[in-house]
Amino acid sequence: MKIRLLLGLLPAIGMACSSGGHNDGGGTTGGTTGGTDGGDGGLVTVTLDPSAQGNSYLAMAVGPNDKVGVVYFSTVGNGATGYNYAINYVAYQNGTVTGPSTVRVVQRTLGLTLAYQADGTPYVGYLGGANYTYNGPDGGMTPTGSTYWLESQAAIAYPLPDGGWEESICMQDSTAGGAFMPTSGICTSPALMNRGAVVGLWPSLVLDGGTAVMVFRDVHDGQYPIQDWEASAGKMCLGSPSARNWSWTVAVGDEVCCGSDAHEAFGGHNQLVWGPGGSLAVISDQMQNDQGSDTTGGHHVFFTMTDANGSWQKAVSPLSSSCTSLVSDFKTQTGPTMAYTPGTGFVVAVVNEDTDDLQYVSSPDGVSWGQIEHVYNQGSGGWYPTIQVDPLSQNPAVAFFVCSLQPSKASAYDCFGDPDAHLAIKERTPSGWEDVIDVAGDKFYLPKLGYLSTGKAVVAYRDYASGSAPSPIKLIVQP
After folding, report:
1. pLDDT, tens digit, 9 for 90 and up, residues 216-240
2. Domain count, the chain
3. What Rg value do the Cα atoms of the chain yield, rounded?
4. In CATH, what number is assigned to the domain containing residue 59?
């Protein structure tokens, strides 16, 4: 079982420079809506939530018996310091839509993650809990609360028999009850590693039976012009949400270069996957200026994993051949996306937002990385990439949005009305990257790719809207 290998994860890890080239309750039951789109091989479009509001984050997972779940933020009104957002969950299975069901309402929309137990029970990870109320061992600095961080804790929710959801806090503050001890060989001081109470940004969750493993970003107090952001760390909790028996560890601890111009800023746009032999692997980007957003704030890409004994390996920068400051590296837009199978090894895609160059790199073992390949690099495209492995062909496939064949488009709003806008899925075959799905449209926002047990592709996305118009949550299903 995988869980045996996690027992060795508790120490913090350091980061060393390496070179290389280099998933993502109850409710009402309703019928599907939508139909086929011309020119796309008869793909079926299913509307999961026609009334969703806003253009914020979503996550998708394919569970047992081909249950496809989506969690997403939907604007529900004004709050004390901005909008209120419902975290909604909706599922699609065998032609039927169930939901949406509201997990809880929050004001900070900094990432979502979804995973299924073997019995089909969904777990949802997010920045939740209560507001900042830190009183830790910090030399007298004891703020009593925050008017901005109205949610400041790493949270995992699961459904209850009555159709509601129960929230379990897997980490309350940076000290996690004294779990983080002084560590040698890393750049960030132990004092910073244990300072603050804003944890749970950009979570990513995997399950091993009833045990949840979630990585996320710790930004200390979440304030100052840039200091807290640059000193942020990637951390991890491990345990049972219902039993609340949590353990903690550092998943990504420090800057790989440790130089005078280094900026840690770890834990942006995290993605956690199971690797070979029950190991864990994390890929993320760095956010040195603030907490980041759904589509901005990240630079650089870093990868780290555990070995077969549960000890963390040295981190690598798989898209760079040397240690370079993140400020000189490209913007990663929605961040890197990663998948693993024994046949393909680790496969990674990320778009260089500065040049609209969608890049791919792979590794059989997480140690030796191949050459960078360019999946798409024309006009304004390669946006919002999401990678999976086709279970039938065993080929890596990347879904992404092309805004325009014209360069220099800056945002999804600029794509409205462009005749060349479309959603694409390219698959890496022995002949190169080939188009397998192409759907015309200008509103494919934040697509998430998955595969059913039949080998058919599914893509969840947000139908991007402007102003107060709804932004429906939709699903494309390959027949």
Report:
1. 999 988 887 888 888 888 888 999 9
2. 1
3. 21
4. 2.120.10
